[in-house]
Amino acid sequence: xxxxxxxxxxxxxxxxxxxxxxxxxxxxxxxxxxxxxxxxxxxxxxxxxxxxxxxxxxxxxxxxxxxxxxxxxxxxxxxxxxxxxxxxxxxxxxxxxxxxxxxxxxxxxxxxxxxxxxxxxxxxxxxxxxxxxxxxxxxxxxxxxxxxxxxxxxxxxxxxxxxxxxxxx
Length: 169
Description:
Layout: H1 5-12, E1 35-40, H2 51-63, E2 67-74, E3 78-85, H3 93-107, E4 122-125, H4 129-140, H5 142-145, E5 158-160
Antiparallel strand pairs: 1-3, 1-4, 2-3, 2-5
Helix pairs in contact: 2-3
């Protein structure tokens, strides 16, 4: 009996992931490594969009020199950031994130809000220079889509710690 094309396509799909994959960053000749990261609070608690928390996060990113944070936005229950290796012997993105999540958790100003973070995060290496600008425009408009600000530029909890440049071919 012959299967129709919809059945064949469905059967070839891999099972859905329960946890994000964290492939190692791939260095390519004359191309930077820029990784887009999204991480959420435990149970999506709305505890991040506060001045003291933003300061704590930026302190943690400065303390963890294995990766450099470029553009970032901190929303009430999640963070988006772009990062690039800060050293030749940089830890994996997953280990670097574990370091600064621990740094933040140990210094968190409100004990009743613990635990702070979901166990894992999502990370994707950018493949082309235009992806950095396009992804940034999309994520910085999160505050507008979630009705937290009228315009993306009005959201106070965003910035750029390091300029991550894409070197053209």
